[in-house]
Amino acid sequence: SFNNQINVTSTGSYFVNVTDQNGCSGISDTINVSVVYPYASQSICVVGVDTVTNKNIIVWDKPNVGNIASFNLYKESAVSNVWNLIGIMPYDSLSTFIDLTSTPDTKAERYAMSVVDSCGNESAKSDDHRTMHLTVSAGQSLTEWNLIWNSYEGFTPATYRIYRADSSLNYVKIDSMAASSSYTYTWTDHNAPLNTDVYYMIEIVSPNGGCSPSKANTNYNSSRSNTVNSNEYNNVALSSDFSSDKTSGIVPLMVIFYDETANGTVDSWFWNFGDGKTSESQDPVHQYDSVGTYHVSLTVSNSTGSNSVVKDNYIQVLPNGVTNIYEVLDVNVFPNPFKGATNIVYTINEETKVQLQVYSSLGKLVADIANENQTPGEYKYSFNAKDYSFGTGVYYLRMTIGDKVITKRLIQVK
């Protein structure tokens, strides 16, 4: 007699041939063996981001067949088509698995699964499914955001639904896009709420109907992307600018500077007054103690970058005893701020050349009002930005009297 174990891997008829030490042999009766393979049609129903844990969730339907002991869950590694086993779920458990190692806010991830029978045999891996990863970037205005996401892989949905929410996180569908063969999709929200948290999410619905994990009351029929708070990606390009209460005067000259940066949220300021002094205040007050002409620069920064503006020969500090421009020119602008038009009125006490110009806050010439030799007397001009096809906003009046310059800020309101 003997006792030996033979592993049979395929269905068929088998017999045993036994030979003793003297060379005598015998053949057993034919034995018919039927090998039952593991269930080979297992598939993932849907993968997505779980709204409770904010981790990826895998959902599948359990087949009503015997001899299934468990399900193996796999995630693709950083190497293409190399898979890591991330979980083993018994057959009688809820057929959902949350991947606690997933990072939905960082990247899309691909999953597959297999079946293991009671003999320990494992089926081939199923077709893989891949989650959607959503990112946002700033558009051309403070109320504009660009969305981009990768297509869902595993089935082809009919529609991508776009959702938006405020800080209450009550998501509302704001648009839909037809699915296509594109790998990535883009969409722009032109009317996002201003100065608040704005959240976005993408959702698809399975064309195969809902998934029904046993022991669960939820019918999983959709997949959701990660959620994105646009304020965390506030990369609106800063556009630095500044003004001051005066640009010339006799020494010592005290000047108040005003930050007028457009777009974005400024986290820090750095001023260089041109005389070796600096400041990190938003609206600094600076005293010039030496005669000269000074360049002034402002650099503003936030988490997304920085932007600088330099104004050459911006501040002119005159010595005591030298006639100040204000002694030659008495200028008034009224009303200011103004609706419609404002009046520019000045008096000069000696014949001189006068150039009167208006610039936008971005330094673009808006109006060339006067450029001539003027005799002593009072002069009056009217300015309305709309006459020059400009709208409301901040403008700068630049007056050149001989070789001296004075600027005043004009504010046109609605």
Helices and strands in order, then pairings?
Blueprint: E1 12-14, E2 17-19, E3 25-27, E4 31-33, E5 46-49, E6 56-59, E7 68-76, E8 83-90, E9 96-99, E10 110-117, E11 129-130, E12 134-138, E13 145-150, E14 159-165, E15 172-178, E16 184-189, E17 199-205, E18 222-224, E19 228-229, E20 242-244, E21 248-250, E22 253-259, E23 268-272, E24 278-279, E25 285-288, E26 292-302, E27 305-318, H1 325-328, E28 329-334, E29 342-348, E30 352-360, E31 365-374, E32 377-383, E33 393-401, E34 404-412
Parallel strand pairs: 21-27
Antiparallel strand pairs: 1-4, 2-3, 5-6, 6-9, 7-8, 7-10, 10-11, 12-13, 13-16, 14-15, 14-17, 17-18, 17-19, 20-22, 22-25, 23-24, 23-26, 26-27, 28-29, 29-32, 30-31, 30-33, 33-34
C-alpha termini separation: 107 Å
Please bin the fraction of helical residues.
Answer: under 10%
Average pLDDT score? 84
Largest sheet: 5 strands, antiparallel
Task: List how many beta strands DSSP finds.
Answer: 34
Low-confidence stretches: 321-328
Task: Give me the Rg, rounded.
Answer: 38 Å
Oligomer: single chain
Secondary-structure-derived class:
mainly beta
Number of helices: 1
Q: How much beta, percentage-wise?
A: over 45%
Shape: elongated
